[in-house]
Amino acid sequence: MGTTYSVGGPFSNFATPADIPATVFSQEGNTLEIYPGTHTWPSTDFDMNNTTIVGIGGKNACILTGSINLGASATGDNYVSGLTINGTAAVPAIDVKTPETRCGIHVSDCILTTSSLAVRNHTPTSKVANGAPATTVRNIWSSCTAGLAANSNVTAISSTMAGAWNQPPVNTQAAAGLVGTADLVYAAANAGNMTEVVTSRTIVS
Q1: Which residue of 101, 156, 181, 198 has the fewest C-beta atoms within 10 A of its own C-beta?
Q2: Domains of the chain by residue range
């Protein structure tokens, strides 16, 4: 299901990320391949719909300047992998704004820099059924001011993050709905009313 598009390569569909129409993201199940190089990502809020964004050649070859923003109509499970994202200073490197339905963001094998947060997801606990994680990070390295800001279930595996590893953006969420698992996370203690299960943690001061 879905179509594969590419950007920045010699035979790509699009020369730059700014050329990508919003429908590439909103159509269900599409994949966007980012070719090696440094690309400026637009500040547009894209309504992703089970979208995959992947760097061809990995995070050291594929660099985005600018934060990835998901709009209010974004939905499903969305994946970002194999990229260095030099985000916008005042906002998260990857930001799921208040979605109308459950919106998952799953980030792997990425370097996230510059931004205030590595990943923020405003999906509330009430929209996440059966305890399924709405936010997962795996094999990421972040020098952003803080790690994650997620309202609902979170999993962080083999990742290195500065600052508190999860600060819910809406700190009135029920603690029972903010269950997180962290493995090998470099971070300060969790902030906010989240119930966390830390399987192991390496803290460097």
Answers
A1: 101
A2: 4-200
